[in-house]
Amino acid sequence: MRFVAALLLCLTLPAHAEGFISRLLNKPVPGGVAVVQLGPASQAPTASYQGKPVLIVHEEGRDWIAIVGIPLTTKPGRQQVQVQDADGSRALAFEVRSRDYKEQRITLKDTRKVNPLPEDLKRIDRELAEQTKAYQRFSPGTPSNLLFDKPVDGPLSSPFGLRRFFNGEERNPHSGLDFAVGAGTPIKAPAAGKVILIGDYFFNGRTVFLDHGQGLISMFCHMSKVDVKLGQLVPRGVAVGQVGATGRATGPHMHWNVSLNDVRVDPAIFIGAFRP
Ligand SMILES: [Zn+2]
């Protein structure tokens, strides 16, 4: 009976029930974000996608929503989130649409950054494990703002998801969004966050991970200088460090990753710059 009641409720909801956050963030493509409407509830529901906890917020004046990161490798079609609330557990479906990602060819003089030496591989593995663990954090607390500020003022350069070839060899797709800004430009927190990892990595160079809450995590890399400490709470708009060209970079630029439920998604979505 509960199912029928829920179904009727869905059918009677007006088409404009979605709020501003839902409309802005709902880009259900590979490497995008799905906003799933969870309906009213007196207490916050919890939800998971592919076994990982998902960001849940209450959209102002509206209902609960789940904000789900969709892996770049996802095929178009039906996906589902598992929701738990006072009524029990239920699955809610959403459709993933297709999106084309272009190719990028990059020439690096430092061939060791394309084909690392055996001694580099150990370091790379260790660094990957450390960063993966940071992305898997799921801390309580609602992000200060879901509509992010741009971390730097400057034009976008390489978009998220580009298939990349270094010196003709295919490597991982571009996991973030680049801004064309000069060395030394301050990188500002797009929302309040806690510094959960600082590193100086083989590929990423000087790097800061900022935890905005509930699995929403920013990563800035290739930095020339880090201006925060591990565990520091960084208010929205305060600088975490400066733009540089450390790690595998052809020149100074700001590279920004955004992760949701341990999935790297297109940061352009969060600053209203998404192009289908
Ligand atoms: Zn980049």
TrEMBL record:
Keyword Signal: yes
Extent of the signal sequence: 1-17
Record domain Peptidase family M23 N-terminal: where: 26-98
Superkingdom of the organism of origin: Bacteria
Identification of the protein by name: Peptidoglycan DD-metalloendopeptidase family protein
Domain M23ase beta-sheet core: 173-267
Sorted UniProt keywords: Signal
Cited CDD domains: M23_peptidase
Organism of provenance: Metapseudomonas boanensis
